[in-house]
């Protein structure tokens, strides 16, 4: 599982002209799933995101109650080392990935996080205002 985590002043996801998820000051998480990922990996990723000390004064979403916007992003497993057309073979198929993205979201909510999401298998417009800027790549 791979996540790009950014501190944001605001972020939103729009699908077909409708805002389906939006947050103020918090974390935007672009989340990719690969074939070897399991529910245990999803739980570990959720804990890592929630407790990541990336916010002001080295605080975490767990410390501050900052909201988290999670957006599925299979392209995080794109491989463009050869040629100009990325290969997506490392990305898990949607049928495997969707329950694991949901597992991350549910684990975050179990931990008390306020979580918004994008919409799986749709064309999403993701807008964000990065603060810092602070962006981390988490690879599990």
From TrEMBL:
Broad enzyme group: hydrolase
Pfam families found in the cross-reference section: Tyr_Deacylase (PF02580)
Motif Gly-cisPro motif, important for rejection of L-amino acids boundaries: 132-133
Catalytic reactions on record: a D-aminoacyl-tRNA + H2O = a tRNA + a D-alpha-amino acid + H(+); glycyl-tRNA(Ala) + H2O = tRNA(Ala) + glycine + H(+)
Subunit comment: Homodimer.
Transmembrane segments: none
Protein name, per record: D-aminoacyl-tRNA deacylase
Gene this protein is translated from: dtd
Organism: Micromonospora mirobrigensis
SUPFAM superfamilies: DTD-like
Single GO term (MF): D-tyrosyl-tRNA(Tyr) deacylase activity
Free-text note regarding domains: A Gly-cisPro motif from one monomer fits into the active site of the other monomer to allow specific chiral rejection of L-amino acids.
UniProt key word Endoplasmic reticulum: no
Residues in the signal sequence: none
């Amino acid at each position: 599982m791979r996540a790009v985590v950014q501190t944001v002043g605001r972020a939103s996801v729009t699908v077909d002209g409708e805002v389906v998820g939006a947050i103020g000051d918090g974390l935007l998480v672009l989340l990719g799933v690969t074939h070897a990922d399991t529910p245990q990996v999803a739980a570990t990723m959720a804990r890592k995101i929630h407790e990541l000390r990336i916010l002001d004064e080295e605080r975490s979403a767990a410390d501050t109650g900052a909201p988290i916007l999670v957006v599925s992003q299979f392209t995080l497993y794109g491989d463009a080392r050869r040629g100009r057309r990325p290969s997506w073979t490392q990305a898990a198929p949607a049928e495997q990935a969707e329950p694991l993205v949901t597992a991350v979201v549910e684990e975050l909510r179990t931990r008390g996080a306020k979580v918004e999401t994008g919409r799986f298998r749709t064309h999403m417009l993701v807008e964000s205002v990065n603060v810092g800027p602070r962006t981390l790549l988490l690879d599990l």
